[in-house]
What we know:
Structural class: alpha/beta
Strand content: 15-25%
Number of helices: 14
Strand order of the largest sheet: 1-2-4-3-5-6-7-8
Oligomer: single chain
Helix content: 25-40%
Radius of gyration: 18 Å
Amino acid sequence: MEGVRHRTVNVNGINMHIAEMGEGPLILFIHGFPDLWFSWRHQMKALASLGYRCVAPDLRGYGDTDVPASPTAYTSLHVVGDIVGLLDEIAGDNEKVFVVGHDWGAMTAWSLSLFRPERIRALVNLSVAFTPRNPKRKPLDTLRAVYGNDYYICRFQEPGNIEAEFEQIGTERVLKEFLTYRNPAPIYLPEGKGFGHPTDSPLKLPSWLSEEECHYYASKYEKTGFTGGLNYYRNLDLNWELTAPWTGAKVEVPVKFIVGDLDLTYNAPGAKDYIHKGGLKRDVPLLEDVVVIQGAGHFLHQERPHEINQHIYDFVKKF
């Protein structure tokens, strides 16, 4: 990408790669799984041209950022600690920033909003709605009860197990399987069956994703492996334990939430009722807007960049 500046900053004890573009008020973009800073390429270009300074890191465990060895080094406290350390480096002492998150990046942004709301001017979150902590139910027990052991998050839990299967399938093929997934139903990965079809069967890329872009993703994952990204899922129960002090806490920053109607997160049991019938507004009192994009899947910022860019700009320009 032309015009992107790359550098490495030391934050919270790790070396973090960041991509930057533009000048002006700062917008921090936080990616999810299995993404990289690169997933924000369209947003960075558009919003930099509109007078914003866009910064997108590779989170810990991803891309050109350090990959800590310990599986428990990927809790929400670690990841938010990295973000706060990054803001200390790149933003002025009193500068509040705009934040845009997707998938795990949205979850990180929700956590950042709970832990350090004074750092955020406004938040645009994509795909993953806020999930209030339920003190009576551990996340993994709940997921297993609802979806069973073949559900992808449950399959991700055993260190090394799914990595070995992904190695058999091939890095680039695995990335393509995730990035092209447009089914509103849950992802199941039964042991030894991969994504449910032969790994040599042709996989047609959508118009918004090129072979060249897939090669870029694959080149980074071939260097780091998938373990760093998978470790975020492996800390769901530990996150639940560590965030007990925030039980019942509300997200007190201005928020716009955007989701595709084909997103598996939007079609999860209870999600639509929570988002549209007052639950999300109760827990996020400064929620200003919920946008459901028809015909869009999970990776909506790449699939529908012009719409998403406009939605982000229309929201942040108010502040």
